[in-house]
Structure formats: structure tokens, C-alpha cells
Amino acid sequence: MKINIIRSDKVYRNLLNMPIIERRSYFKEQILAPFKPKFYQQGIPYEAKQDGGFDIMMLLSWMHFIPEKLTLQQLPLIDNLDDRFWENCEIAIRDSLARFSSFKLPVQDYTFTTLLANPVAPMLQINNGYSGDGGIPGYIFLSLVPDSTILSRIPSALAHEVNHNVRYQFIEWDGGSLMEMIVAEGLAENFAVQMYGKENLGPWVSKTNLDTLNQIIKPFLHSNLEVRGMQTITAYLYGDEIAAMMGQDGVGMPYCAGYACGYYLIKYYLEKTGKTIEEASLLPASEILAEVEEFWIETTH
Q1: Mean pLDDT, to the nearest integer, of 238-244?
Q2: Cβ(65)–Cβ(77) below 8 Å
Q3: Which end of the chain has fewer CB atoms within 10 angstroms, the N or the C?
Q4: Is the pLDDT reported for residue 231 higher than 90?
Q5: Quick one: which of 219, 210, 199, 207 has its CA closest to 264?
Q6: In the prediction, which pLDDT does 52 show?
Q7: What region holds the DUF2268 domain (predicted)?
């Protein structure tokens, strides 16, 4: 098992000493180039087709400090991405992957980095300062504001993303159905909780109270499980507020409704079937949902 750690802190320090005109190409070469296969699979252009067109840098600019805007004011944040931070990240990734060692993972090489997120970005604020991306096997991203509170949650966030990474080594991506996303996010967060404790439950679950879950979220999502397409399901999965940030219409769902529903659905599934979270993580969503029809009508406590 090889984990390729890209030390973004060193890149950020070098950027601060470079002319602004040279920063973007250096940043892309040092941090983003190793992730090109990931961007390709996600349909994100590495280079814009025309000036001002959509590409990976435009996407990152919505939530991160882009190279041209980096200043000495961010140096304290960069300092927090120290040797201990990267060591802890590697340990969390290795420990999470080790939970699946009996399944003979097809992917043995993993590339990981962390990007400095902009604390004033609305998408970051609603997620309490951190988020991750691990859905493409072999590649894991974290985006965060590295303060002490958030740093304590990083192992759990990485466990969540590793779970996604492993799942899609065995489960074929269906293009983004609501049922798959609810199940996948529920699996990932249950896995993270089992690894690092319920006290590290992500805001995408902890912000939802059970009355809202039972009375609003579950009935609505149950009747819309067949909705497909990542753009179409955004409001169902992430809620209306995030959908609006992405320029999409709402459907009446609160923050991260699909995540919260998925977490409790998978918790119910594990308790009912006695399956381990590792076993469940490699099962098709349809198989899991077939076992929990009563979840949708029973009151979650």
C-alpha cells in the first residue's frame, strides 16, 4: 500500500515568495497535476477551453484561497499544516484502509493532499470549516481551515472519504442517483463514527434534529429515491441552501438532508442485519434499501 502525500504547505510557502504571475502554473504543476485522472473522471476540465471558461481553478476558487490571492495573512494557517498534521493524516488513511484489508483492494496507490479553504466562503461556513472529496478511487482531497477545532476532526473526515474511495473500487458508479448517494454518505459517516467516535459526527448529520428527520426529510426522500443526476439531486442531498449556492433550484429540504437520512438509514440497516460496516460498504444501494423498507415509516430515535 502506497500513500503519496502532496505537502501543500510547502507549495503554499513557495507561492508566497513567487511573483503573482508565476503562481498559478506552479500551483497546478505541484498540487493538481497528480490528480488529473480524478478530474477527468469527474468531468472537470484541467484547462479552460476559453478565457474565463470553467476549469478546475474556477471550481477551487469558490471555496479556497487561489494562488494569486494568497498573502502573509494566511501564514498562520499554513503553519498549522505541519509535520504532525501530515503524519496524522497518513495514519488515519492507513488505519481506515486497513479495515478493508480482507477484501483485497484493487487500488494500492493513493494520492492525498489538503487545500487551504477560505473561511468566508459560504460553502465552507455551512460545513463548519471543512469538507472532503474521496469518491474517485486512489485520490483523496481535504479542504479546510486548519484551526485547532477543525484539526481534531480530520481523522474522522478522512475515514469518511476513505470509505467512499473503497466503495467505488467495488461498486460501479451509477451517474449519481439519489438512492446511491444517500446510501453512500450514510455508509461513510457510520464508518467514520465507528473509527473515531460519535463526538466527531460531521455537521452534515449533527445539524439535523430527529423531528425534522422523521416528519420532513424521510417522507420526502423516500418518495424521490429514483431521482437521478448529480445536478438534479443536489437539493435533495445537500439541501436548498447549498443548492442555491450552486445556482440550482430548491425542493424544500434542509441542510444536508440526504446525509442525515443516510446516516440513520445505514445505522438501522447495520443493527437489523448484523452486517459489519465494512461488509455493508461494498453492497449495492438497492440491496441495502431492500432490507430497510420499514425504516421509512418507523420513528427514528
Answers
A1: 95
A2: no
A3: C
A4: no
A5: 210
A6: 80
A7: 85-289
In the three-class reduction of DSSP (H, G, I as helix; E, B as strand; rest coil), residue 138 is classed as: coil
Identity of the amino acid at 244: A
Whether 20 and 68 have beta carbons less than 8 Å apart is answered as yes
Q: Give residues with Cβ within 8 angstroms of 50, minimum separation 6.
A: none
Looking at the predicted structure, is the pLDDT value of residue 208 above 90?
A: yes
The Cα–Cα gap between 143 and 147 comes to: 12
Strand order in the sheet with 139-144: 2-5, 109-116, 139-144, 130-133
Rounded Cα distance, 101 and 103, in Å: 5
- Is the pLDDT at 210 greater than 90, yes or no? yes
* Residue showing cell 426522500: 221
Give this prediction's pTM: 0.97
Q: How far is CA 78 from CA 70, 72, 234, in A?
A: 11, 10, 32
Local confidence band at 277 (pLDDT 50, 70, 90 cut-offs):
very high
> Inter-axis angle of helices 178-196 and 83-98, to 10 degrees?
110
Please name which of 296, 288, 162, 169 lies closest in space to residue 223, comparing C-alpha atoms.
296
How many CA atoms within 13 Å lie on the side-chain side of 171? 26
Measured over the CA atoms of residue 280, residue 281, residue 287 and residue 290, the dihedral's sign is positive
Interatomic CA distance for residues 200 and 54, integer angstroms: 35
**pLDDT for the residue numbered 7:** 98
Reported as a single tens digit per residue, the pLDDT across 89-137 is 999 999 999 999 999 999 999 999 999 999 999 989 999 999 999 999 9
